[in-house]
Design a protein that fits this description.
The structure holds two protein chains of two kinds.
Chain A: E1 12-14, E2 20-22, H1 38-41, H2 78-89, H3 112-118, H4 121-124, H5 136-153, E3 157-159, H6 165-182, E4 189-193, H7 199-206, E5 210-214, H8 224-230, E6 235-241, H9 253-262, E7 266-270, E8 290-292, H10 295-298, E9 313-315, E10 327-330, E11 336-339, H11 363-399, E12 417-419, H12 430-439, E13 446-447, E14 457-459, H13 467-486, H14 505-510
Parallel strand pairs in A: 4-5, 4-6, 6-7, 7-8
Antiparallel strand pairs in A: 1-2, 3-9, 8-9, 10-11, 12-14, 13-14
Chain B: H1 8-18, H2 49-61, H3 84-90, H4 93-96, H5 108-125, E1 129-130, H6 137-152, E2 156-159, H7 165-178, E3 181-183, H8 195-201, E4 206-212, H9 223-232, E5 236-241, E6 260-264, E7 280-284, E8 297-301, E9 307-311, H10 318-321, H11 334-371, E10 377-378, E11 386-390, H12 395-404, E12 411-412, H13 413-416, E13 426-430, H14 437-454
Parallel strand pairs in B: 2-3, 2-4, 4-5, 5-6
Antiparallel strand pairs in B: 1-7, 6-7, 8-9, 10-11, 11-13, 12-13
Helix pairs in contact in B: 3-11, 5-11, 6-7, 8-9, 11-14
Classes of the chains: A alpha/beta, B alpha/beta.
């Protein structure tokens, strides 16, 4: 690397891949931008909002509570704020930029009509505790969404208040627990297959159950014999993901449900992968008692860099009476109303296990999901799962000669295709393929999950990728697989073309720096 | 079907490429009797963008929005003005349609925002650290109780009567299943919060003392006194803030001895949204870091030594620790955190203080005006932007009548505490910077009218 001259400008530097890059004194390189923290941009006394001055001081009683000094938070003017966040946004990959083939996470096109509807003042600007007769349209929208979720799953009822998928799992397990306690039984154990999402065992533990693991078979499905032999009077239920995290349909789910029910237990289905079967298969027909639906996945509400989510739970007749408050109920005459603590006795829902969050759930997600559902309709949703499954199988077939596909012989995959790192040259890993994909301009697939496959690569194209787009992705994957088989060392230091190279995650964990302290050094 | 790019010809060619005769060959693992032969009956077919928009607008039109009426509701959800640039920026596709930042090289935008958000929350609350957001205030409150239990290895939590009843309900639900003991009470319609009662309830079995600040009636507890009492018995003080704007005016809980501070961040940037999505805030003392739930973003360096950010300390999380995780949370509220952070960046510390002062000013004016109405008593001695008035009859009736006259006049305590008749005369009234002189006058004259007719 060359030494900087007096102005800080260096004519060029040599990167570790041997390429020569010109340097700049600003840190920016054309449209590749460096952006300081807001705390580093701060200039004292700035603000980006004009607020009226108060007309009088605080009431006397408040004096002893007043803070001594304003919080040490930077204020920026409006143009500085717009530029800061716009510049930051350009350092993100997003579904609007290209495919996000994340298996088990489902990132598909986010229609902007959903955003427009969610921002209508009649939905966005209403208070959860307004008098109920002033928000009849909101309850109607919730009831319409409920009708769709019940219709598409073949279940009896839906609880809408869970705030995310994992919160929905908790809701389902609490319904199971409440049903068991209502029968006066003691069933401390929940069975969770090895291939389950990591949230499943954590949820079961948080709901007060002891978790026992059930192995997977050679062909990537729940070992039904092992599961059935473990059933007994101490088992509250099983948690199954279907289609499972190996991308396969659990053929035996109905038989598993029958066996679990025969022992007095309940079946929880993790519905994170419902987008593979929506409109084609109703989980209620397979004996499921409770299943959460990630509205943000199946019905495309934007993920926003990590949330919000929304995890309504559909329930069987057996579990419906235990659903949490509040919920929306449609009467025989078609009227819709909200059941809260006030109404619980008069509406025959005294067995509700209670409240699991303030207010009615993620209304902003409900309106987006309903908009998406109405846009697709029953025919379109059926086409969604067919196209998602077709796209995944296309990827499976087009890559299985260059990447190991451990379950390719175990039947068609559903919405996601699973590969492993077996067959790469020694010293090359799944991570190298993932980071190489970044240089190719794609977001990586899900890596190292599910845990039952060594060096797993789980690819979910979704239904919103075109054939030409899939072909471009396949070409990149084939190239990377061939480079990793041939031992191309440059793959080990990918990505090369991003604003930041591989980040030191070990350092971050060993010496956690979670807040900026630059002004206190 | 405007969202589906495959053409019929693509589908035929791709089926041939994968070696399937029909699409249902790919669903061969579904038991034949469970595979639907056509679209689900009783549900509508696809509709055009225009038709869907019209339908949804019709439903939205049946609701009375906060901006269309004199509006005085609070109780954990607040109407504040959101600067136009906030919604514009969060709708940038690179923020809106990004995923959880597991691949840091192409997610530095989200990660830097989360790091800035954590710093803002920690400074607002006066805590050492903060996480990258939770679902909402109520679930964050339960997670704080659970965390205090892990730290102290004690199962009992003492909840102030001033804690939002939905937060209490959420904690009670969870505790039924985890074996924690929740000791909660209802508030009493008095000017002073229940600090003395809370302090009296703390014993050497208590792991968490939970106090809302300001409380559900708008009163302000003496955190320093409660914190001293909690710490003397080895318990942690959990402070719940449902209105972060209040912290522009009153002292940060972390500066008054709170060990964990949680809150609802909806007030800044997020909007009412009929109850969600909202934004859980969670700050704590650094020594409890490894017991904190949720996502954390940390600073690090890349292979060239440049500063960068990653999700970190994931060994606490569900995907690593499974049933031994600190929580089962996977999703956070990233986009709401972004909105909060942008709004906070526009305000700054001084802007927030001024916003809080204006809120207080409007509330003070509202309280003074309502106190002039015969039969109406203002309960609080001290409040920021939310206070309680006592009416001569059940406030639910008054709220209903006010709404019929186009005024959204507050939250009747009977809606929150249906079982507790002693509270039914209480009406929680909230004013913010959005409250105009005309709004105050409309509330006062309509309420006077409603009460006169009721008498």
């Amino acid at each position: 690397m060359n030494a900087p001259n007096a102005s800080g400008w260096k004519p060029e530097m040599v990167a570790d891949d041997g390429s020569v890059q010109p340097m700049t004194v600003s840190g920016d390189k054309g449209l590749q931008l460096e952006e300081p923290l807001i705390f580093e941009l701060n200039r004292a006394g700035q603000t980006g909002v004009d607020i009226d001055a108060p007309t009088r001081g605080p009431i006397a009683g408040l004096a002893k509570f007043l803070r001594k000094a304003p919080a040490a938070l930077p204020g920026l003017t409006e143009p500085e704020v717009v530029r800061h966040y716009t510049r930051l946004s350009r350092q993100n990959y997003a579904i609007d930029l290209g495919p996000f083939p994340l298996g088990s996470c489902t990132m598909k096109h986010n229609p902007r009509l959903n955003e427009k509807v969610a921002r209508m003042p009649g939905f966005a600007d209403i208070h959860p505790l307004q008098p109920k007769h002033t928000v009849a349209g909101a309850f109607e929208a919730i009831a319409e969404l409920s009708d769709w979720l019940i219709g598409l799953t073949g279940m009896a009822a839906v609880a809408l208040s869970p705030k995310a998928g994992a919160h929905g799992e908790l809701c389902g397990l609490l319904c199971i627990r409440a049903a068991i306690e209502a029968k006066g039984e003691n069933r401390p154990v929940v069975l969770v297959p090895e291939s389950a999402h990591g949230t499943n065992p954590a949820t079961a533990a948080f709901a007060g159950f002891r978790v026992e693991s059930i192995p997977a078979t050679e062909d990537g499905r729940v070992d039904m014999a092992a599961l059935v032999s473990r059933l007994g009077p101490d088992v509250a239920g099983v948690m199954i993901t279907n289609p499972n995290t190996c991308g396969l349909f659990e053929r035996d789910l109905k038989a598993i449900s029958d066996a679990v029910h025969a022992y007095g237990g309940y079946v929880y289905c993790d519905g994170a992968n419902f987008n593979a079967i929506v409109g084609k298969v109703r989980p209620g027909d397979l004996g499921v008692d409770a299943m959460h639906i990630n509205l943000h996945k199946t019905f495309s509400t934007p993920h926003g860099g990590g949330g919000p989510g929304s995890g309504p739970v559909v329930l069987s007749e057996a579990l419906a009476p235990f659903a949490p408050l509040p919920f929306v109920q449609r009467e025989a005459d078609g009227r819709v109303h909200l059941v809260e603590e006030e109404e619980i006795a008069s509406t025959g829902h005294a067995q509700s296990f209670g409240r699991m969050a303030a207010f009615h759930g993620q209304m902003g997600m409900f309106t987006r999901a309903l908009t998406y559902i109405l846009s697709h309709g029953n025919d379109g949703l059926r086409q969604v799962s067919e196209d998602a499954v077709l796209n995944a199988n296309y990827i499976l077939r087009e890559l299985e000669d260059v990447l190991e596909a451990p379950f390719a012989k175990a039947g068609p995959c559903m919405h996601e295709a699973l590969f492993s790192d077996a067959g790469l040259a020694a010293g090359f890993s799944t991570l190298d393929i993932a980071k190489g994909l970044i240089d190719e301009g794609f977001h990586p697939m899900t890596v190292y999950f599910p845990l039952v496959v060594h060096g797993a690569m789980l690819i979910e194209p979704t239904e919103t990728e075109s054939r030409a787009g899939l072909d471009r992705f396949i070409a990149s994957m084939r190239s990377l697989a061939e480079r990793a088989r041939a031992g191309d060392e440059r793959l080990k230091t990918a990505p090369h073309f991003t604003p930041r190279r591989r980040l030191d995650e070990t350092l971050a964990a060993r010496k956690p720096v979670l807040v900026w302290k630059g002004d206190k050094a | 079907m405007r969202y589906l790019p495959l053409t019929p010809a693509d589908r035929t060619a791709m089926l041939a490429a994968v070696g399937a005769g029909t699409i249902d060959d790919l669903f061969a693992d579904v038991p034949a009797d469970a595979l639907l032969s056509g679209p689900v009956e009783g549900l509508a077919p696809h509709a055009s963008e225009m038709a869907v928009e019209r339908h949804m607008a019709r439903l939205a039109g049946k609701n009375l929005s906060a901006g269309a009426a004199p509006f005085f509701l609070g109780a954990g959800a607040y109407k504040h003005h959101i600067p136009a640039s906030v919604d514009h920026l969060i709708q940038r596709g690179e923020f809106l349609t990004a995923y959880t930042p597991y691949q840091p090289e192409i997610a530095q935008g989200t990660l830097q925002v989360l790091f800035e958000f954590q710093t803002q929350v920690a400074r607002l609350f006066g805590t050492d650290v903060a996480n990258a957001s939770m679902y909402d205030g109520s679930t964050a409150c339960w997670e704080a109780i659970a965390m205090a239990g892990r730290v102290t290895r004690r199962k009992k939590a003492v909840l102030s009567g001033g804690l939002h009843p939905h937060y209490v309900g959420t904690a009670e639900t969870m505790a039924k299943f985890t074996g924690d003991v929740i000791e909660a009470r209802s508030p009493v319609l008095s000017a002073q919060p229940d600090d003395a009662e809370v302090i009296a309830a703390i014993d050497d079995q208590t792991g968490a003392v939970v106090v809302q600040y300001p409380d559900i009636l708008g009163r302000i507890p003496d955190l320093a006194a409660i914190s001293a009492a909690a710490h003397a018995k080895g318990a942690l003080l959990v402070v719940v803030v449902t209105e972060p704007v209040a912290l522009g005016l009153i002292e940060a809980p972390g500066h008054l001895g709170a060990d964990i501070v949680v809150g609802e961040g909806q007030s800044l940037g997020v909007g009412l949204n009929f109850g969600g999505p909202y934004l859980g805030l969670f700050g704590a003392s650094e020594k409890f870091l490894r017991q904190m739930p949720g996502r954390l973003c940390g600073e690090t360096v890349d292979a060239e030594g440049k500063r960068g950010f990653v999700l970190t300390l994931s060994t606490r999380e569900q995907h690593i620790r499974r049933e031994k995780a600190t929580s089962n949370i996977c999703t956070n509220a990233g986009l709401c955190a972004l909105a909060f952070s942008i709004h906070m960046s526009l305000l700054g510390g001084e802007g927030l203080s001024q916003l809080a002062a204006v809120n207080h000013d409007r509330a003070r004016q509202t309280a003074e005006r309502l106190a002039q109405i015969p039969g109406v008593t203002v309960l609080n001695d001290a409040f920021v932007n939310e206070f309680t008035v006592v009416l001569p009859a059940d406030a639910r009736e008054a709220v209903r009548s006010l709404a019929d006259k186009g005024v959204l006049g507050g939250v009747a305590l009977g809606r929150l505490y249906p079982q507790d008749k002693a509270l039914h005369a209480g009406l929680l009234v909230t004013a913010t910077e959005c409250t105009t002189d005309d709004d105050i006058e409309a509330l006062a004259t309509t309420l006077a009218d409603v009460l006169k007719k009721g008498a």
